[in-house]
Design goal:
The structure is a single chain. With 626 residues, the chain is an alpha/beta fold. The protein is elongated. The two termini are 24 Å apart.
Length: 626
């Protein structure tokens, strides 16, 4: 495996491949002394990992050949520069047409075109490859897209996690053991630490990390758990709610944006006065209502003849109509001036309105913040954004969608108050600076102690210390820490192994990966029942993929009490997995590596009393903020 890059995702992906999957990894980076080089060099010195490095300022052909691209099984391009990743991908495909490419691209449209182009090159240069191999030869991923659903869920619903991939919509919900079965959950993903306990016993009696959950518990652990103990259960959302799919609305004229409320009131009052004058003229003159209204408008616009031969009442009405016409002139001028000012301000960022409440304060409009903002707007959730850079990537989106935005340093006094932090529902601190995110969270908690916060932190030890301190200091408030690279690494690692990773859901400081795995040739799955394939604390079969083998729909549906759509959920424990099956599993990252190798001897070697606690599992437990 070859990984090209010098960032947090490169470091986590390298550790993922080497520790979880047991692969030989070569890292191509500019220097081991700068950037993330020192952290990656620690992996090189680990005797349990097979990692080496190639230092090159630019990953040109010579660097790729030195890394062994002709013999490599997969290449991951993790740089934040889309153009650089495309350049290296095209060069690598020419040097090794059969290599599996995993490319990090922020531009979605460009990513789809590039994926089709590189796959077409594989078909032309390697016609002997199967369709499945060609389909898996190029994968374009975005770390921001992978992390956005979890970050949005952390802000909106706190402890609830949602993943969306290939039409699959799953929700992890925190409940108690006693109430977990009320909504027919698909599986129990974890048992949360009991109140007051400093450590937990993992599956098979293994020690779980302090303050950590029990991942994928078995029936015995569930039976022994207290009904009041917290549990994370998996629920399937079969129909999207109105919040996720709001009905389309007819476009409305932006009258409120063009004209101020005071001007609208003045125009309305003048129209009412003219209507009263027309009604009075109709009453006094005895003419038809249409004629009376016509005459009144002529008097308002001062284009009617003087009412010399009319009654005194009609003459008075004509004078009043002329006065109303004089008042109309300054109002028309005000309309013109306000419209001109509104069009000039249309290109500017709106300020947070005074009456805004129930919104999400989003700090940071970089790549991740832009994707999160887009997702929040899709859910029709009001947002107030803060970023110190007027040219940040998400500023254009905020301006186009008229999102209230403050271009200011969040550490300055009064910025959070102007964002109406005291009336918001949550704070998302998503800048790339851990210190800035922490400072914003602490300032916000001073203003609103019960505020729900989700912050982006990279350093594991720092994140753990911050989480425990905030949890102890504000026990009634929800605090979540997330790492974009930790959420994205399982998807990138699974793609390099040629597997379809549907997504990742954080459980405490750990990550559960959901992936589709072929049973054929996998000795850990093939020929075993669903119950026998279950490894507590490591992996669990959740569903059978009906689209993989359509002629077996009837038998698979009979084996599952909740078979619907493309997946048959909750397969019968006695159903025997055969070579034609494809399953959806929930697994730790270490467990997914074992499943991909499919070797029961290696799996059983780590499945003794300390199942899931070997070096690989330890990496899974401490692989970084989820």
């Amino acid at each position: 495996m070859i990984v090209c890059g010098d960032n947090a995702l490169t470091q986590r992906l390298t550790r993922e491949l080497a520790s979880v999957y047991g692969e030989h990894v070569t890292v191509v980076l500019p220097s081991l002394r700068d950037g993330h080089g020192p952290q990656i060099s620690l992996l090189l010195r680990d005797p349990h990992l097979s990692v080496r490095a190639v230092e090159a300022q630019f990953p040109d052909e010579a660097a790729l050949r030195e890394a062994g691209v002709e013999r490599a099984a997969a290449l991951a391009l993790t740089s934040g520069d889309d153009q650089l990743n495309i350049h290296v991908a095209l060069r690598a495909r020419r040097l090794n047409p059969a290599i599996r490419l995993v490319i990090r691209l922020y531009n979605r449209t460009l990513g789809r075109h590039l994926e089709a182009l590189l796959d077409r090159a594989v078909e032309v240069r390697s016609p002997h490859l199967s369709a499945a191999a060609v389909d898996a030869s190029t994968t374009v991923l975005s770390d921001a897209d992978t992390a956005a659903p979890s970050l949005v869920a952390a802000a909106i619903v706190g402890s609830e996690k949602i993943i969306q991939a290939d039409g699959l919509l799953l929700r992890a919900k925190e409940r108690t053991v006693g109430t977990a079965d009320r909504r027919n959950p698909l599986a129990t993903l974890a048992l949360l630490p009991e109140a007051g306990s400093s450590d937990e016993r993992g599956p098979g009696g293994a020690d779980a990390p302090a303050d950590g959950p029990v991942i994928l518990p078995d029936e015995r652990q569930l039976a022994e758990a207290s009904p009041a103990r917290g549990a994370v259960v998996l629920e399937a959302i079969t129909h999207r709610s109105r919040a996720l799919n709001a009905a389309s609305r007819l476009p409305r004229l932006p009258v409120g944006m063009l004209f101020s409320r005071r001007l609208r009131y003045a125009l309305g009052s003048l129209v009412a006065v003219v209507a009263l004058l027309a009604a009075a003229n109709w009453t006094v003159s005895g003419e038809l209502p249409q004629h009376a209204a016509y005459v009144t408008l002529l008097d308002v616009f001062a284009i009617n003849d003087p009412a010399l031969d009319k009654s005194d009442a009609q003459q008075v009405l004509q004078l009043l109509s002329g006065l109303a016409g004089m008042l109309l002139l300054p109002l028309l001028l005000a309309v013109v001036l306000e419209s001109y000012g509104a069009f000039r301000a249309a290109s500017a960022l709106p300020r947070p309105p005074r009456g805004v409440s129930g919104h999400v304060v989003l700090l940071g409009l970089g790549k991740v913040g832009t994707r999160v903002l887009d997702r929040l707007l899709e859910l029709h959730i009001p947002v107030v954004c803060i970023d110190r850079d007027p040219d940040a990537r998400g500023i254009a989106l905020a301006r186009a969608r008229r999102v209230p935005t403050l271009v200011a340093d969040v550490s300055e006094h009064g910025v959070l108050q102007e964002a109406r932090i005291d009336r918001c529902r949550a704070l998302l601190a998503l800048t790339s600076d851990d210190a800035t995110n922490l400072e914003a969270v602490l300032n916000a908690r001073q203003l609103k102690p019960e505020l729900r916060v989700a912050m982006r932190l990279f350093d594991d030890d720092f994140a753990a210390s911050v989480y425990r301190t905030l949890r102890d200091s504000y026990p009634h408030a929800q605090t979540r820490s997330r790492s974009v690279s930790a959420l994205a690494a399982p998807a990138f690692g699974g793609a390099m192994m040629g597997r379809q990773v549907l997504g990742a859901i954080p459980v405490g400081r750990r990550v559960l990966v959901f992936a589709a795995v072929d049973v054929a040739g996998n000795r850990l799955l093939e020929g075993r029942t669903v119950a026998e394939a279950f490894r507590p604390g490591v992996w669990r079969v959740l569903a059978l993929d009906l689209t993989h083998e359509r002629d077996r729909r009837r038998s698979l549906a009979a084996a599952s009490p909740t078979g619907s759509g493309a997946l048959a959920w909750q397969p019968h424990p006695g159903y025997v997995l055969t070579a034609g099956d494809r399953v959806v599993v929930a697994s730790t990252r270490h467990g997914l590596g074992e499943l991909m190798r499919g070797d029961p001897d290696l799996a059983d070697a780590g499945a003794g009393p300390g199942a899931g606690t070997g070096p690989g599992a330890g990496a899974d437990a401490s692989a970084g903020p989820s």
